[in-house]
Fold these 3 entries.
Entry 1:
Amino acid sequence: MSSLSTNKERLSTSKEICARESEVLAKTQKLPYCPIAFKSGKGALLYDYEGKEYIDLLASASSANIGHGNEEVADAVREQMAKLAQFSIVYFSCKEPVEYAEKLIELYPGDNNKKVLFSTTGSESIDAAIKLVKGYTGRNKIISFNGAYHGSTFGAISISAISLNMRRKMGAMIPDVHHFNYPVCIRCPYGKCEESCNLECLKEIETAFSLYLPPEEVAAIFFEPIAGDAGIIVPPKKYVQALHELCKKHGILFVVDEIQQAWGRSGKFFAIENFDVEPDLIVMGKSSGGGLPMGIVMGKSEIMDSLDAPAHLFTMSGNSTVCAAALKMLEIFEREDLVEQSRVKGEYFKNKFLELQKKYPEIIKDVRGLGLSIGVDLCDKNTTTKIIYECQLNGLVLISLGESTLRVQPPLVITYEQMDKSIEIIEQSIKDLIDGKISDEALSVINGW
Ligand SMILES: Cc1ncc(COP(=O)(O)O)c(C=O)c1O
């Protein structure tokens, strides 16, 4: 106790905060990148405890699409907290969650015969969706994809396939989950290109349906419309449409995990809108609560009403304060046309990375993405680690995905000047690397995924 309080009094620099953090927070909560602690933020800028400024290319893992330090959202939260912070909607009713649900339904592709189920995180909402698809179809089997990250609750872990640490020491998962290859065209296992592609990876599912996986027992396919943590992989439109058709053919529900890609990230409100497909259920989280914890499942009313209470409810879910924050955020999204901003700025930023690729083809191998959801593949893991470390030291919050993909997902309010400055910092890091000026220190600090 005494050593902790001594630490508290000393706690004033980023490094000290990070050191204290490792003493008191469980290590499974951390994918270490750089010992920086943030004190405040404004728009796409962040400030650490030394007052150093950073441009944020991570948006708190795509959960701060509206940017940091938004006064209007803060006022809405303050006002709601003073009036009635929350009263559980499990037992009585409040206006704010009803209003938020009504607005979300208007955003859903297709008709308005939809309903909403609130949770507090993306992962919990994935669990909700798993329960709902089983409840509605009476089927037990689930299909998802290699490389998928759907979250950390037991259901979400069961349908994820991205890290052995999400399985080790945990024992049984939920049964009957079947993983298939996501269409990663840049590394097509069939050696096909866009012209020669016959959707061979989709045929893997069809083969399974004819040999060992009875399609009439499959409740749902869970699909990330852009595979986020696998490296911001955008699937071909014809694949997504064919997958959706396959679902319809067999009465399988098509569930999209929009936790990372919704809220304009891809230049459309929902990433699935890029593929002209209407999913049966959409799962959201991250940016959905205007900076407060919020998870959402929404979709066709008959599916949403297929379970009775208390099959999936949480005391604090959809509470008035988080919904007040979310409603204000939605108002700002519409007023500022942030979805369109993401599309236009995304084009600009992607082109800047493509220009950089032309200059450094031996370092930058691929640039891809939609809107402000951009993945930039570098040549190898050590290069990537050194470059992101150097960028962080030079005022750019930038992390990697997989072995060597830069994750470029800034708040949608990032300015053109900030995008230009980010490119300058990345280019300088590349030059420093080529000149042998970056030490190996980064390799021992950053563990990442
Ligand atoms: C695609 C996707 N699904 C699910 C999740 C889990 O969301 P949460 O961390 O809010 O539980 C994440 C989080 O990174 C995600 O990116």
Entry 2:
Amino acid sequence: MAKQPSDDLYDRYMGAFEASAQHFKGCDACQEGRNCPEGASLHERFARLQDAFRARQSKRRR
Ligand SMILES: [Zn+2]
């Protein structure tokens, strides 16, 4: 499955994943399960883009 060069949603989805993962690595509060506001908003953004991306994938698959 090749990635489209101009796939903006995919790029934002991956960007949000990276941002969320990077934050988690450097944030004691998130690693201890204490949701910090920044981590929560990064995770929410990632979850929204993941939903959008998966919804689009399942539409394309049929
Ligand atoms: Zn955090």
Entry 3:
Amino acid sequence: MLNRCSALEAGAAPRVQGGRGAPERRPAGVYPPCIHGVSPKRLKVPSVRAGRAGLFHIIRSGVHIIRRGARFPRLSRARDRLAATWFTTVPGPVCYAVLMSAVRIIQFTDPHLYGGERESLRGVATLPALNAALAHARARDWPPQALLVTGDLVQDDAEGYPHFRRVFGALGLPVLCLPGNHDEPEAMQRELSAKPFVLGGFADFGRWRIVLLDSCLPGSASGALSAQALAGLAEALAGAGTRHCMVCLHHHPVPMGSRWLDRVGLTNAAEFLDVVDKHSNVRAIVWGHVHQSYDALRKGVRLLGTPSTCAQFLPNSDDFAIDRRPPGYRTLELHADGSLLTEVVWVAQHCNGSSRSACSAA
Ligand SMILES: [Fe+2]
């Protein structure tokens, strides 16, 4: 059975807060600010008094437009993403608890840290590369609601965990973790046992449930999900209610088209996918391990492999080969309607930036 992440409750639970000057109680005639289960977020814009009933389109800058003739509250896709449309039945103050239309998560994977701060793996100093990836993400669109790290936190070196804990523990965000084949299970458990780290189980953010699986086989580079893990997955999916689900693990559950890599994937992928297929609420499966970007759709479920924050593997190579692409990470925007927007970001100025793609998995 997978444990629900109690550590996340405070950060993950929807919060409703009025804007500056907003009344304690919701004014009569204003519809609840939480529509379709999305999470409100406080923005520093003043509340205003509506001179008449109608629809109010609210955006970050505080601009509001009254629309006549509309009858129902609905979400709006504004260019700056933080927007909502409210309907009031009578004139009155409009409380600026503005809606977030998506849950934002950033995935970092396979940092392969060592105890030594300058140690390298396949030509890349892993701790500086991770720091560079984090700094890059923090300079773009920060903060997300949570960070996700999908295994190989260390390179067979338990002394790497204190670095991981120091780097990720200072960010003030939940850090969802699962192990990879180069992790040290006991040390990982010991080092990441407290907030903000979440090791395994599942966590809910708005309309989404994130499920974290342990696919590691002791002493093996390939992986498998135990009967207990599969049962826990089925239980987490069945108990998700109306939430959409994203399932995360280290090993790839589908062939990558790379002979050597496909020998070390998820050995019981058929059983895993059978569980997924029995639950219509799974929208995405996300993994690490492959040190490259992968993006496909299977039976309406988005399949996403993510580059490492250090060295990459050459895609479609039958034999082991290093790709010269730089460190990378993935951003995920999980929308309330079950769709998602994702982007692989490469951390190098000489590279072409990113490969952004919209989702059809809703
Ligand atoms: Fe790895």
